[in-house]
Amino acid sequence: MTHLETADPEALRTAMVDQLVRAGTIRSKQVEAAFRTVARDEFAPDAPLVQAYAAHEAVPTKKNEHGITISSVSAPDVQAMMLEQAEAQAGMRLGEIGSGGYNAALMAEVAGPGGTVVTIDIDPEVTDRARQLLDANGYERVRVVLADAEHGLPDAGTLDRLIVTVGAWDIPPAWTDQLAEDGRLVVPLRMRGLTRSIAFDRDGERLVSRSTEVCGFVTMQGEGEHTERLLLIRGKEIGLRFDDGWPADPDALNGVFDTDRVEKWTGVTVAPAEPIKGMQMWLASALDGFCLMSVDAELDTGLVAPQNKRANITLLDGDSLAYLAIRKTADGAEFGVHGYGPNAEAVADALVEELQRWDRDHRQDEPVIYAYPASTPEADLPAGRVITKRHRRIVISWPQEGQASKSTITEKEK
Q: For residue range 380-410, what is the model confidence (pLDDT) as tens digits?
C-alpha cells in the first residue's frame, strides 16, 4: 500500500518533503526540517489530506463573488522555492506579506526561538483565520497584523528578510526602508505581464536580483493593486493582455484575424520538459509591442493556435500582430510564429528574429533585474529594458548588453 493510499497525514507529509528534496526544490537543512515539522493539513483543514499534501497544488481558502481565488495556501513547491531564495537563518527577523498561517509557521521554524516572524494581510477574514490556526498549532509567537502592506509592516522594526506571498506589480519604498542594509526581499513581481519570484538584495537605494523563478500568485489588494488591461478581439474569443503599452489605436485590430495567416518556423527547438523562462523574459524585454494573448476555452473556434492559450507571447504593431506557435519534432518541439494583418510578414519576421537571437546569444543566460527609485534619472540606470512604475524603475539587464541602448516602457497608472 502506498503513502497516498493510507491517507495518513504524517506519511503524506514525509512523501511530499521527500519529493521536494529529490526535485531539488528543497536544498537546505533548515527548510527541510521546517517542512517535516509543520503539519500542512492543520492549516488547510477543509481540504482532503491528499490535496493538502500535493507538492504542486495550492489550496484555495477564499474566493470573491466571481469565483476567483483571492486567498490560498500556496503550493508546497512554491513555498519551498521562496524560502530557499530567502536563505533565512536562525535568529533572523522575518516578515511576510500575505497571510495564511502555514508559510508563517514554516518561517517560524527556520527563524527558531531566537528569531521573530510577523505576517500581514489586508483582509480581516484572512488574518483571523491565520491567528486561529497559528495559535492552535503552537505558533503563538508569530505576530499577525491586519493592515495594507503598501505602507510596510507596522511596529515590526528592521527586517533581515521580507517574503511577499501575493502577486505584486510594484515595490513600495516602505518594503525596502524596513530591510536591513544586507537584507533580502523575495517578491513575485509582475513585469510586462510575466511574474517572477525574485530574490532582491538591498544595495543602498537600489535592489539587485540574486535569483529569479517562475511562479503565479493571487494579486495584491489595497493601495498596491494594479489591474492589467484586456483588449477583446472577435467578440470575446481572443483577448490581448497589457501591463503597459496599450495600443494607440485599438480599433486598428478590428478584423485582423480575417486576414490570411503568415506562418514561419524558426529552427529554435526545445526538449521535452526543458524550462523556457529565459526565452519568455528575453522577448518581454526585447520587444516594444510585447503583450500576452489569451483564448477563451468556451468560445475557442480553433482559429488561432498559440503555444499557450492562457498567456501566449504576442508582438503587436499597429494593425498587425504575430504570436508564438509550436509544433512537435522527433525529439521535442520547434517554435514558430503566426502572423496576421496587413503587415503580418514584417511583424512575424521581427518575432522570429528575437527568438533566434535568444537561441543564439542568451539561451543559457538569466538577466539581472534591478529596482531603482522611480526618480532615478535615465543616465544613472544600467543598460537594458527599463520599466517605469509608480515607485520603481525596473531594469531587465542581460549579459553582454553593456553597450546596448536602453529601451524604456512607462507603465501608466490605470
A: 999 999 999 999 999 999 987 443 445 555 5
Of residues 279, 160, 270, 162, the one with CA closest to residue 214: 279
Question: What are the CA-CA distances from residue 340 to residues 81, 114, 276, 301, 316 (Å)?
Answer: 39, 61, 25, 16, 10
Yes or no: say if 172 and 150 are a contact pair by the CB < 8 Å rule: yes
C-alpha cell at 276: 523556457
β pairing state of 262-270 and 290-295? unpaired
Catalytic sites, residue numbers: 74
**Closest-CA residue to 267 (of 206, 205, 337, 191):** 337
Give yes or no for a contact between 79 and 103, defined as CB atoms under 8 angstroms apart: yes
Q: What angle do CA 152, 158, 163 make, to 5 degrees?
A: 60
Tens digit of pLDDT for each residue in 21-41?
Answer: 999 999 999 999 999 999 999
Max Cα-Cα span within the chain: 66
Cβ of 212: how many Cβ atoms within 10 Å?
A: 21
Q: What is the DSSP string of 367-380?
A: -EEEEEETT--GGG
Report CA 70 to chain centroid distance, whole Å: 15
Q: How far apart are CA 111 and CA 189, in angstroms?
A: 25
* Residue 84: partners with Cβ closer than 8 Å, 6 or more residues away: 25, 26, 27, 28, 31
Distance CA 77, CA 96 (A): 17
Q: What is the DSSP letter of 168?
A: B
Coil, strand or helix at 312: strand
Range 227-264 burial, b when 16+ CB lie within 10 A, else e: ebbeeebbeebbbbbbbbbebeeeebbeebbeeeebeb
CB 369 within 8 A of CB 277: no
Q: What is the pLDDT of residue 201?
A: 98
Q: Note whether 149 and 224 are within 8 A (CB).
A: yes
Cell of 6: 493510507
Q: Nearest-CA neighbor of 108 among 127, 121, 94? A: 94
Could you tell me if 292 and 241 are in contact, meaning their C-beta atoms sit under 8 angstroms apart?
A: yes
Is the whole model's pTM more than 0.85, yes or no? yes
Grid coordinates standing for 369? 533585474
Residue 33 cell numbers, joined: 526540517
Task: Decide the pairing of beta strands 159-164 and 93-97.
Answer: parallel
Give the C-alpha separation, 242 to 244, whole Å: 5
Q: If you search the block for the grid coordinates 515590526, which residue do you land on?
A: 156
